[in-house]
RNA sequence: GGAGAGAUGGCAGAGUGGCCGAAUGCACCGGUCUUGAAAACCGGAGUGCCAGCAAUGGUACCGGGGGUUCGAAUCCCCCUCUCUCCGCCA
């Protein structure tokens, strides 16, 4: 969420930003509502002031007549106050509903445009030339009995799967590899709840229970299944004031991720590329409220993501996400797209990580603040999130990139400590 | 799941209808004293919202929501959380 007064005072810039991000909103209405809100607050404050004054007179009244007069006046004021409060609430409901729909401002260097207008910042690794037709992960999994899609469907429906045999070892190894690396780099490790309160989801910018929601919710409770540990790690500091000296808080969280993938039917989704549940190690950071501080961590997160895929020996490219594809909270977002030899006709890049700087957009809604030395008042911190390893996507990249001409799959060196085997098949 | 106790400012902890945004202590900041520090003493200090260029003023906030009342930290109802005991359980 942006700051209300910021929006009203920078209408042109906010409007331009909405346009770039493909969001249509009526900012005139917002300003109108802001003004109405001020008026009702002022009216209510004044009425309450009178109310206090009148009720303060009652114990000092000199006779019963005067007393009754004050009581009558007090009753009258109580009615007026409650009217003003109702009006204020009504205005605020519409106001904040609008405000919440406004996306974050955007980094000036982020490419403007839609998904197809993305900018490739750099590529790493050579895309191999195969003298045979490489299999995709579905065929590889079948060949080596690694994923049971039928069982997944029987148990939970389309979009669910069982990992089997070496795939389970690989999942655990990828998790261990990511967590160990992040710990070495000074991140505090967490394994986090798989459910969170709706208000926490909303605080991080996710919208549970809507008509096209990506979120599974638990009926009869205010809990939903998390789509990422970004939600739980961000929510972990809800309404807290963080010591400035403790920033940045660098966290790594392990959780399952659940996504309905509503509206995703028909998009390329063979195998485990787009599934309803997967395991993920997520990176999250709270930083001091300056772009210097959060940009620095943003870079650090991308560096770690690249290091992980380099050590897994998987070719990738880094994408600077264009405005139209940023999502609400992000100020800037980089994606890693790994080469997937079995994808499409002759291999394609597929998204495996993302890294977002959300500046103070999530922190405002979550109420995470810090007191900056030499400055008065508290300020909202900046938050960032990034993928260390999303198992389903990483699994595809590992299986497809490390397949051999004889159909076997080599386990990347860095994972063998945990898999205990160095080859599948 | 059952029984009981509790939730007040950064922390501890008073406060049972108006004199309470709230005593007191600790911690914190400024000063006096001191060669310096400590101690002692003096003073300051919460968060949000609204108005204002600002100084400032107003208002709200005693776990959350609702109610009673002219007036609620204080009375009533609901909820959440914490602690203790019992049961169940990976």
Detailed description of the structure:
Strand 11 and strand 12 form a beta hairpin. Helix 3 packs antiparallel against helix 4, helix 7 crosses helix 12 and helix 7 packs across helix 13. The chain is built from 13 helices and 17 strands. The mean pLDDT is 92. The protein is elongated, with a radius of gyration of 27 Å. It is an alpha+beta fold and 425 residues long. Strands 1-10-11-12-15-9-8-4 form an 8-stranded mixed β-sheet. The chain has a 3-stranded mixed β-sheet with strand order 7-13-14, with no helix packed on it. Strands 2-3 form a two-stranded antiparallel sheet. Helices cover 42% and strands 20% of the residues. It binds one RNA strand of 90 nucleotides through helix 3 and helix 4.
């Amino acid at each position: 969420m942006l700051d209300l007064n910021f929006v009203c005072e920078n209408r042109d810039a906010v409007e331009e930003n909405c346009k770039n991000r493909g969001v249509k909103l009526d900012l005139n209405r917002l300003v109108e509502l802001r003004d109405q809100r001020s008026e009702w607050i002022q009216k209510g404050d004044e009425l309450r002031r009178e109310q206090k004054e009148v009720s303060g007179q009652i114990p000092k009244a000199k006779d019963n007549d005067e007393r009754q007069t004050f009581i009558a006046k007090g009753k009258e004021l109580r009615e007026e106050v409650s009217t003003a409060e109702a009006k204020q609430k009504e205005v605020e409901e519409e106001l904040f509903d609008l405000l919440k729909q406004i996306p974050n401002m955007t980094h000036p260097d982020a490419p403007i445009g839609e998904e197809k207008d993305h900018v490739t910042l750099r590529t790493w690794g050579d895309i191999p030339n195969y003298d045979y037709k490489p299999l995709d992960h579905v065929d590889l999994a079948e060949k080596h009995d690694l994923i049971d899609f039928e069982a997944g469907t029987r148990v939970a429906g389309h979009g669910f799967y069982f990992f089997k045999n070496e795939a389970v070892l690989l999942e655990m190894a990828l998790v261990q590899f990511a967590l160990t690396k992040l710990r070495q780099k000074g991140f505090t490790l967490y394994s986090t709840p798989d459910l969170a309160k709706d208000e926490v989801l909303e605080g991080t910018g996710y919208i549970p229970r809507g008509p096209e929601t990506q979120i599974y919710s638990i009926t009869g409770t205010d809990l939903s299944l998390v789509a990422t540990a970004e939600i739980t790690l961000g929510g972990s500091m809800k309404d807290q004031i963080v010591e400035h000296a403790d920033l940045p808080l660098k966290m790594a969280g392990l959780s399952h991720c659940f996504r309905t993938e509503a509206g995703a039917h028909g998009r390329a989704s063979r195998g485990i590329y787009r599934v309803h549940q997967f395991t993920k190690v997520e990176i999250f950071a709270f930083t001091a409220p300056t772009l210097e501080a959060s940009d620095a961590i943003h870079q650090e997160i991308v560096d770690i993501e690249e290091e992980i895929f380099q050590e897994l020996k998987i070719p990738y490219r880094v994408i600077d996400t264009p405005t139209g594809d940023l999502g609400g909270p992000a100020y800037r977002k980089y994606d890693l797209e790994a080469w997937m030899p079995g994808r499409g006709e002759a291999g394609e890049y597929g998204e495996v990580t993302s890294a977002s700087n959300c500046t103070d957009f999530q922190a405002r809604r979550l109420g995470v603040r810090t007191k900056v030395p030499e400055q008065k008042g508290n300020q909202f911190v900046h938050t960032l999130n990034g993928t260390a390893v999303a198992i389903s996507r990483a699994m595809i990249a590992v299986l497809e990139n490390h397949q051999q001409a004889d159909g076997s799959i080599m386990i990347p060196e860095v994972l063998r400590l945990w898999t205990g085997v160095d080859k599948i098949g």
